[in-house]
Structure prediction request, 174 residues.
Amino acid sequence: MANWKYVAPLAMAVAVAGCSKKAPEDLPPQPVDTSTGSGQQDNAGSGISDEIVPGSQRDFVNFTRGQDTVYFDTDRYNIDSEAAARLQTQVQWLMRYPNKRITIEGHTDERGTRDYNLALGERRANAAKNYLVGLGVQPGRITTVSYGKERPKALGSNEAAWAQNRRAVTVTID
Prediction:
């Protein structure tokens, strides 16, 4: 009979040694700050131009100063005065580029069923679209999509996170 009292601890030691992790010799690079506070980035040597291309998404976001998003109250899809001001800024940019197309993405917070949230996101996107059309943007330039609660802007189950997720975002199509 083998000495199991010696074999078992040896087997455990070999198993534990095989599971140990070694520290990596090379650490991954630090994350790059991608904020565009001034609309300019330092891309020296990256091959990416610092210039904002007229008619691009970056130009749109720069022109609207981050007002590419309108927010809604809980279970609402009406355009209030703040949303109207944001959409009017978007119209100014869209009138500069009459051949530019956009997509309006409708989003909801995490509450509600998947089907309900998809329908609410669609109503929000369509409300923004209808407002833009009412200000003279050709309807054929605008497509809508609803993501419901599938692409939250803020994570969390509180009013602050939910308020950021009840939105319609305008994205240019390049």
About this structure: The radius of gyration is 25 Å. Residues 114-134 form the longest helix (21 residues). The beta strands are 69-71, 101-107, 142-148, 167-173.
